[in-house]
Design brief:
Helices cover 34% and strands 24% of the residues. It is α+β, with helices and mostly antiparallel strands and 331 residues long. The strands form 4 sheets. The protein has a 5-stranded mixed beta barrel with strand order 3-4-5-6-8. Helix 2 runs antiparallel to helix 3, helix 3 packs antiparallel against helix 4 (65-77) and helix 4 packs antiparallel against helix 5. The longest helix is centred in the N-terminal third of the chain and has 15 residues, at 13-27. The relative contact order is 0.09.
């Protein structure tokens, strides 16, 4: 096979040395030095799709989406197979970051995914029906895994209320990587178990104008707590009992297959939970089966003009079993 007038052959030892050294530098966060080596490798073997794939990958790590798109397109032009190559997935991520919707649709289709219907008025690929997934926010910092709705192969809309340390808000859309790092399992009402991938966030794609509040509530029973969450949802926003939903996990646990708290019948002591049992709030976790603690730390995603009225209305529905205090906007 001839490409650009040359017979295709195995990459040279200089190419392999430069590439191996570049990925060692990438692991150390030395992207500029890695760029020089991968550019040299591409100069040595410009007919090799891997040369451009590696450069596209580096530019993705750097969030340099114009360069990632350019290198990715050179990589796919040299592919020897029609579909399924990860090169197309990287092109799809770069195109999504740039809102280059015609290229994004082409990339997902070339990878082998069905993109139903015609493009929307904006050209955005919609209706891919990819279901739910989890995403790890701030994967290199104080990582937090939250649930979301997949809009397409590279974007997730956040359905949980993230902790303020993540800097993210309920309803935001984040760009995520294509290779899952970990899984979460959930047991359905019929007893069947579903497995969901955990993707790493790359960057914020669309911000939310809805602020995050933290509040301490007194809820005599779980039904009182549930009533607050329903009231917020009925208003078009969200409330979440962080005392029940937050678990502190080490990195090894977070990146493995973990059961979700919802519907899994977890024991009172979860060996993967590295928080302090019985302490409400983000620094502790009360799993299913534990004694109910009336004091709960809740996150609320709602506009400032609504949040106090929502809490007052919740208390007014059952004043003998409900109370709130210490409301604070945190993100």
């Amino acid at each position: 096979m001839r490409i650009f007038g040359r017979v295709r052959q195995r990459p040279s030892s200089d190419w392999r040395l430069a590439t191996d050294r570049a990925f060692t530098l990438i692991d150390d966060g030395r992207y500029e030095d890695a760029d020089a080596l991968l550019t040299r490798a591409a100069d040595l073997e410009p007919w090799l799709s891997e040369s451009w794939f590696n450069l596209a990958l580096l530019h993705k790590f750097r969030h340099d989406w114009e360069q990632a798109r350019s290198a990715g397109l050179r990589a796919v032009a040299l592919l020897e197979k029609d579909s399924g190559a990860p090169d197309w997935w990287n092109v799809g991520i770069a195109a999504t970051a740039l809102q280059d919707w015609p290229l994004a649709r082409r990339a997902w289709q070339a990878y082998g995914l069905a993109v139903p219907g015609e493009a929307s008025a904006t050209g955005e690929p919609l209706g891919m029906d990819l279901g739910g997934a989890a995403v790890r926010l701030s994967p290199e910092g104080e990582a937090e895994v939250v649930w979301g709705r997949r809009l397409d192969p590279a974007r997730i809309e956040l359905l949980n209320i993230p902790l303020p340390s993540s800097g993210r808000r309920w309803g935001e859309v984040v760009l995520h990587d294509g290779v899952p790092r970990g899984e979460r399992t959930m047991t359905g009402v019929t007893g069947g178990r579903s497995v969901y991938p955990v993707f790493d966030e790359i960057e914020l794609w669309a911000p939310s104008a809805v602020p995050t509040w933290v509040v301490l509530i007194e809820a005599a029973a779980e039904s009182d707590r549930d009533a607050l969450e329903r009231l917020a949802a009925d208003a078009g926003y969200a409330a979440e009992d962080w005392s029940s939903s937050v678990r502190l996990l080490c990195r090894a646990c977070s990146e493995s297959r973990m059961p979700s708290e919802q519907g899994d019948g977890m024991a009172q002591h979860d060996p993967h939970d590295h928080s302090l049992p019985g302490r409400p709030g983000p620094l502790g976790h009360t799993g299913a089966g534990a004694l109910w603690s009336p004091e709960r730390e809740c996150g609320i995603a709602a506009p400032g003009a609504l949040v106090r009225g929502l809490l007052d209305g919740w208390v007014a529905d059952s004043p003998d079993s409900r109370e709130w205090r210490d409301l604070e906007e945190v993100c």
